[in-house]
Amino acid sequence: MSDAAHAHPVDPDRVAHARARLPSRDEAAQLTSVLSLMADPTRARVLFALDLVEELCVGDLALALESNEDAVGYALRLLRTAGLVVNRKQGRVVYYRLADGFPEPLREHCLRQLVVLSEAPAPDDG
Amino acid sequence: MSDAAHAHPVDPDRVAHARARLPSRDEAAQLTSVLSLMADPTRARVLFALDLVEELCVGDLALALESNEDAVGYALRLLRTAGLVVNRKQGRVVYYRLADGFPEPLREHCLRQLVVLSEAPAPDDG
DNA sequence: CGCATACCCGTAGATCCGTACGGGTATGGG
DNA sequence: CCCATACCCGTACGGATCTACGGGTATGCG
Predict the structure, then answer these.
(1) What contacts B74, CB < 8 A, 6 or more positions away?
(2) Domain HTH arsR-type spans what residues (chains A, B) (predicted)?
(3) Closest Cα partner for B44 from A26, A81, A120, A110?
């Protein structure tokens, strides 16, 4: 029977405590959707690049990432739709930069911090 | 032609600058894999719950999340494989808690901070 | 020893995501 | 006016990811 958990909570107190403070599944989905946007190599590197040089057009972005325009274009589409980046059109060229309201703690503590974390491997399964 | 970007960089200087400092695609994949682990409603709530009450068995976790054992079991498997949570077996019951080396900044600045961010909607596409 | 519980694992199915491709629009130059 | 450039969009395909299901192992109880 995998469909249901046990009927007798082992720690009813802790279950109630967690249950009361836990974000709802809908709230969790909302905040994880933001996280999902950075949880992709291409998008993460796009954000890194824009953080480094402030502004870059699509073609240069593809060059900097050693990627192609398709991948970068798709990444920018999602980032733009989410409002994490904004664009400025000058002639035929479209320049992208991080949005003014780009989450500072997210950039500082997620992206940059994760570089450090990825260098510290996790212990094996128990 | 979507396969290649333009041959003439608009800002060769910025391209070179970004290219030199950018994490490689492999490094990016490694750090985004960590991010991907939290970028799921079930796993994020599991981590939230364990952060709140320190220790919880699988069944109680499913109760607290109002989920089923399958979803929680799968979430714990990935979290455990990645070394983000550890388990302790007492009799038939398996208790889970956050790993000792669980990234503090990740918990503090990603999970908790994202709750605030999710409440500030992003502007529309430009 | 036989049964129920608590959890784990492997597999199949559905669903989502990222990439590749073709075509379209707007700008700029000859 | 015609063509090349820079970028965007819609579609189709391959791959990854999550869920659901059946079965397996270990513990505790009578």
Answers:
(1) B42
(2) 23-118
(3) A26
